[in-house]
Amino acid sequence: MKLVPTSSLGFPRIGPNRELKFALEKYWKGTISQHDLLQVARSVEDAAWALQVGLTKITVGDQYLYDFVLMMTESLGMVPKRFAHLPPGIDRLFAMARGVDGAPALSMKKWITSNYHYMVPEYDETSQIHADFSRFLEDCRRGVATLGADCATPVLLGPVSFAYLTKISAPGVSRSTLVDLLLPVYEALIQELVGLGVKEIQIHEPCLVFNDPSINPLLDAAYPKILAPDVTINMVSYMDDVGDTNYQWLMSAANGIHVVSLDFTRGDTLALVQKYGATKTIGCGLVDARNVWKFDPATALPVLKCLVDKGVIFRIQPSSTLQFLPWTVEREDKLIAESHPALQVLAFAKEKLQEVARLAKVAGCLLDGEDSEHLLSDHESAWKSFVESRQTSQSSSVRDRLQAVQPSDFRRSTDYLERRKQQLKGLPALPTTTIGSFPQTSAIRRVRAAWKKGLLNDAEYQAAMDQQIAYCIGVQETLGLDILVHGEPERTDMVEFFGEQLEGILFTQHGWVQSFGSRCVRPPVFWNDISRPFPMTTREFKVAQSLTEKPVKGMLTGPITILNWSFPRIDISGKDQAFQIALCIRDEIRDLEEAGCIVVQVDEPALREGMPFRTAERDEYLNWAVDAFRLSTAGAKSETQIHTHMCYCEFQDCMHAIDRMDTDVNSIENARSDNATLKAFKSIGYTKGFGPGLYDIHSPVVPSRDEIEAKLRSFLTVLDLDQTVVNPDCGLKTRGWPETIAALRNMVEATAVVRNEL
Ligand code: GLN
Ligand code: ZN
């Protein structure tokens, strides 16, 4: 049988037991040395290599300690002014990642469409390039020694993408001048890699998928200029197809690139191959590195057949680095013990390697003109039996209900102006409230953990939570807030709390993926149609409301946030999955209303981040995302005031969508910004309730009454008095009680001063 080569594009860096996370945190605390930290990083890398042995090409030099963009920034010596006084090296890298006295960290952004965050490079008026790639080269040398020069493949983030992602504030410097500055460094670096004996280098240029014509001159400037004659260059892109222009550029002989790695699991890469053919070796990213499912033969086979028919030379590989996936399914004892049906088709990073190997065999058969059925039969039967296991009466009733949804289900029964009069009567002007969570003390966390371990029974646990709720209500009453919250002591995480109670969503024990630096998340997995077997929040609401005459806000997470922070299904659309959750939220709001709730907040912090990066696809996403939110909330009575909360992002490119959500009050993170966002909302005619964050909850510093008062007055120069709501900029769960109480007291007092003048 013909052997089809295989390649990896990267493996999870955090380790099977989050070893790197714990080592980083110890290093930052000063309890281990830099040597120990690097030892851990290397042992994780060794473990990853050991699993990948058998692949034709394995990546090296990519066991970044914090983030790959930051590693590049540090090695280039391209630091902004506020870090210029620090000596180069790992500590400067961490200083840029986490900030040091007087020098706030680089900002963090989501990596393309993933939930990974990279550190945004900055080039300011004092920045210069002082490259030192010795640590990277040392890592690559270690890779070559371990895996051999034929296999070990160094990874570089390409100069065009690096410049594209950099925030440039130096006068007279453009992306193109920055690329020009980077070229000699890359040229020298590639020479040094050739000197190590490597046969191939991966250059990741993810900006190829942005389809932004401004990158084309930059690509032409860099390639083939920086390349060396004696090494194969594999140019890698992922998360989407590269579009017509970039595909043709990649295939052109002039750029010096030999292998073109493309994502065949997103966008329409196959159409590009069919349209233009492939004159270079294709790195066929057919194993989805962004999701936890085994490949579906029905979608993989047509791609392989097309490549074989067209006589394309190709390799099999994951669609991108596997860093977005947990390490292995083998650790999931609970799912294994209960023989969860999803196990048949789940694949984390380790299992994705087996998928690569299997597809390579199938491809080999196809090349030989042989039958590959036998290689796929267990795969097909696994999917078949999984799909059958999902067909429960529960799931068909979810589907029936979704089918029966009517256009009127997306509309509140009355218009905003009319229903607003019926809501929360008797509330003063400038009502004060908070975003939901109150300090999550270690005592609270201990109680939750003890209950999960079975050390506390339900009654004991609930009593402990109720005590917290009572304390929280007492504090808010004493401070004189107007719309109270129960404080969310029972929630570890705003998605996990709901996901665990919904049917059709599963949770892993060890499914950690890196979010940024040492921070890892364990995304829920959607595996079946989603329904709500019982009310999720009414008990805590009732406890809280029974303790006060003031209205207590019901607190829910919206469908888009739940979807965007999970691993979705691949057999139905994101829209359908969001709508299924929406129906659960809709029922929850009805139950809250029945329990006496007259104000409900449905948080959607992740609305903006699910937005596709290509403008052409944005409207479609925003339309169904807004519809999902409306399906969640439109069933509320006119008298029920619906709030939402959004944070972590700029809103300017989705304000119309936010307006269409038709919420009565929207509280947004704004404490660190001026009035630009407010003005922008005003300019599009946003007239509904608005609560821009008055102070920054991310910092332990207590804002003074005067500061808050000044900020409120400045908001009121833009917003109408009767649309303005007073609140901090996000939940308070990461803060301690003393600073929380002090800050809220100042907020309430500042509001009273402004109110008294009315
Ligand atoms: N209600 C949530 C809280 O207060 C909102 C969290 C968020 O915006 N990310 O914690
Ligand atoms: Zn928030």
TrEMBL record:
Class of enzymatic activity (EC top level): transferase
Task: Provide the alphabetized UniProt keywords.
Answer: Amino-acid biosynthesis, Metal-binding, Methionine biosynthesis, Methyltransferase, Transferase, Zinc
Binding-site residues for L-methionine, renumbered to this chain: I435, G436, S437, E488, D603
Which residues bind Zn(2+) per the record?
H645, C647, H656, E669, C730
What positions constitute the catalytic site? H698 (proton donor)
* Cofactor(s) named in the record: Zn(2+)
Q: Reply yes or no: does the keyword Hydrolase apply.
A: no
**Gene Ontology BP term (one):** methionine biosynthetic process
* Binding residues for L-homocysteine: I435, G436, S437, D603
Cofactor mode of binding and number, as noted? Binds 2 Zn(2+) ions per subunit.
Q: Which GO terms describe its molecular function?
A: 5-methyltetrahydropteroyltriglutamate-homocysteine S-methyltransferase activity; zinc ion binding
- Which InterPro entries does the record cross-reference, listed alphabetically? Cbl-indep_Met_Synth_N (IPR013215), Cobalamin-indep_Met_synthase (IPR006276), Met_Synth_C/arc (IPR002629), UROD/MetE-like_sf (IPR038071)
Gene3D superfamilies for this protein: 3.20.20.210
Q: Which Pfam family is one of this chain's hits?
A: Meth_synt_1
Task: Please list the residue ranges annotated as the Cobalamin-independent methionine synthase MetE N-terminal domain.
Answer: 6-307
- UniProt pathway: Amino-acid biosynthesis; L-methionine biosynthesis via de novo pathway; L-methionine from L-homocysteine (MetE route): step 1/1
Family in the record:
Belongs to the vitamin-B12 independent methionine synthase family.
Supply the NCBIfam families for this chain. Answer: PRK05222.1
Its recorded name reads 5-methyltetrahydropteroyltriglutamate--homocysteine S-methyltransferase
